[in-house]
Design a protein that fits this description.
The chain is an alpha+beta fold. The chain contains 18 helices and 16 strands. The strands form 5 sheets. The protein has a 6-stranded antiparallel sheet with strand order 7-8-9-10-6-11, with helices on both faces. Strands 1-2-5 form a 3-stranded antiparallel sheet, with no helix packed on it. Strands 13-15-14 form a 3-stranded antiparallel sheet. It starts with a strand and ends with a strand. The relative contact order is 0.07.
């Protein structure tokens, strides 16, 4: 029944003497189009043959679910509440009735493996921005925002060339107008407005959710969307298979091996290269780049290659636990240490525990940052073990690895870090014979770290850098 344009749907059954209500007698803000579409989706044959009453009788449980689920909150044009604009508009037409080349607006166009094309609206072009919008209906939407899509799903066209069919869908009242303008500009019919009015179906978001989530009914675009989801699943499977290889090559700083990649695969060489570039970009952007002065850049080691992420990860471990170094804490090495360090320093260490002694020095100085500082220092020294290298240059390469760890925890800024490392190298390593100095540094050289060092025979005998790549 209809009372003052309000639809009342009452579920009843005959109890033997009269009709008795199953549900609540209440108005539903469902339009006649919504009721008709619901019935058609639920049981098209019964609805066509016996009308609404016949459809209810044949699908009583489903209508009872509608009665329980539907709240009296159907869409309304409340200019102060954006939720009032939520609705789903959709329809279909013959492909030959729409000139796709004349579609205004910006679109993302994709093609499924089965040949279905999906046009997803991205935003307005110059033509749409020049079109007057209906201010009397949507006065609260700003001029420059109106032609942006507003729903949870962008206005979408599914093009099925084999069936000469277009299915279109939007998820907001404003988007109904947007797609209406877009399609009216491209329809080949004599009266585009009249043609479009016959193709649209508009239902509330509440009804759509009940149909899809509660009753598991399919919407007209589901079949096409599934084609893209299926393709994505295949791509995801390919991505899951290839990502460990990408991450392994990235972490080890090695080029990706494309030798077994076929361009006929779901992910071809171009797609994999794009993923690798994105991964590298993410790794690079995870922390700000180290800022160096022009003076400091003169001390950079141009021929030194920064370790890849996999190597850096090993530097968080202690010397004895890290797979980056192999420790030779033998009696022979300790005797060599006694010779280079002198009796006073040698007495503080114990045979077989020289590596632990060095770790304790750095722990006492740097606490939780000790492993990163010691390991990064050893890494640079052992890579360049036969070359004299300024302490400042070594510290710069350490900062390139872990400046986000060292500053401001270990030092306030770069210059403070250079001074700190210079003091540690000279006082703790140089005096113990673990590094050799090319000269006895003076005050300014010690402060700036501009004197040069290289690992002593003690250090190169005790710690061996492993080739992990």
């Amino acid at each position: 029944d209809t009372i003052e344009q309000v639809h009342i749907l009452a579920l009843t059954y005959h109890n033997g003497s009269c009709l008795q209500h199953y549900g609540i007698v209440r108005p539903y803000n469902l339009t006649s189009q919504e009721i008709s579409y619901f019935c058609h989706s639920l049981d098209a044959r019964s609805y066509a043959t016996n009308g609404l009453s016949g459809c209810i009788l044949n699908n009583f449980i489903d209508f009872f679910a509608l009665d329980l689920s539907y709240f009296n909150e159907a869409p309304h044009l409340d200019e102060d509440e954006d939720e009032g604009f939520s609705a789903w508009g959709f329809g279909e037409m013959e492909l030959s009735h729409l000139d796709l080349e004349a579609l205004p607006g910006e679109w993302d166009i994709e093609t499924s493996s089965s040949g279905i094309k999906r046009y997803s609206y991205l935003g307005p072009d110059d033509y749409l921005l020049s079109v007057d919008r209906p201010d009397e209906i949507f006065p609260k939407i700003m001029e420059d925002e109106f032609w942006e899509y507003h729903g949870v799903k962008p206005p979408t066209l599914y093009i099925d060339a084999k069936e000469n069919r277009i299915v279109f869908v939007v998820s907001h009242f404003v988007d109904v107008l947007i797609l209406g303008v877009v399609m009216a500009n491209s329809i080949t019919a004599a009266d585009p407005g009249e043609y479009l009015s016959k193709t649209w179906t508009i239902i509330s978001d509440e009804l759509k959710q009940i149909m899809t989530d509660t009753l598991a009914l399919h919407m007209p675009w589901d079949t096409y969307e599934y084609e893209f989801l299926k393709d994505n699943d295949q791509r995801f499977e390919s991505l899951n298979n290839i990502m460990p290889r990408i991450m392994d090559s990235t972490n080890k700083g090695k080029p990706f091996d494309f030798s077994d990649i076929d361009n006929s695969d779901e992910l071809d060489k171009d797609a994999i290269s794009e993923i690798i570039n994105k991964v590298n970009s993410i790794v690079k952007d995870r922390r700000p780049e180290l800022e160096l002065t022009d003076e400091d850049r003169a001390y950079e080691l141009k021929d030194f290659i920064q370790p890849p992420p996999f190597i850096k990860l090993q530097m968080s471990h202690s010397l004895t636990e890290s797979s980056l170094f192999k420790i030779h804490d033998t009696p022979e090495v300790f005797e060599l240490y006694r010779t280079f360090s002198g009796a006073s320093h040698a007495s503080a260490a114990s045979p077989g525990k020289l590596s632990e002694f060095i770790e304790d020095i750095f722990f006492d100085l740097f606490d939780s940052s000790d492993n990163h500082i010691l390991n990064s220092l050893l890494y640079v020294l052992l890579i360049r073990k036969n070359e004299w290298t300024s302490v400042r240059s070594i510290a710069i390469e350490q900062l390139k690895m872990f400046h986000h760890v060292f500053i401001p925890v270990v030092a306030e800024d770069n210059e403070d870090f250079f001074t700190t490392m210079s003091s540690v190298v000279h006082r703790e390593l140089g005096t113990r014979g673990l590094v050799e100095l090319n000269q006895r540094p003076k005050g300014e050289q010690r402060r700036l770290g501009t004197y040069s060092i290289k690992p002593s025979p003690v250090l190169t005998s005790l710690v061996e850098l492993q080739n992990l790549i």
